[in-house]
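4.2 Preliminary Data

To establish feasibility before requesting continued support, the project team ran the inverse folding procedure on a target of 79 residues. The structure was first converted into the token representation described in Section 3, and no sequence information of any kind was made available to the design step. The complete token record follows.
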């Protein structure tokens, strides 16, 4: 995924690892908020539900398992 982004191929990096691509966008948003805080701008913290992080963990674990199954619909998740 990183190789595709480094060479300007966003579609290829999305195909290689869509979840990491989305996670990269979240990290960039967090860095933007952190930079604003360091510069003295007020940062509005979004309200997150309590179930968010357990749901993210379940999605990551489920994708990891499904991606490695040798069954036809799940082989499309492989790079």
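Position-by-position output of the design step:
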């Amino acid at each position: 995924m990183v190789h595709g982004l480094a060479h300007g191929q966003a579609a290829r990096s999305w195909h290689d690892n869509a979840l990491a691509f989305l996670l990269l966008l979240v990290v960039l948003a967090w860095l933007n908020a952190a930079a604003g805080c360091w510069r003295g701008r007020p940062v509005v913290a979004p309200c997150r539900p309590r179930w968010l992080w357990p749901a993210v963990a379940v999605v990551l674990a489920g994708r990891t398992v499904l991606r490695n199954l040798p069954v036809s619909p799940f082989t499309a998740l492989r790079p």
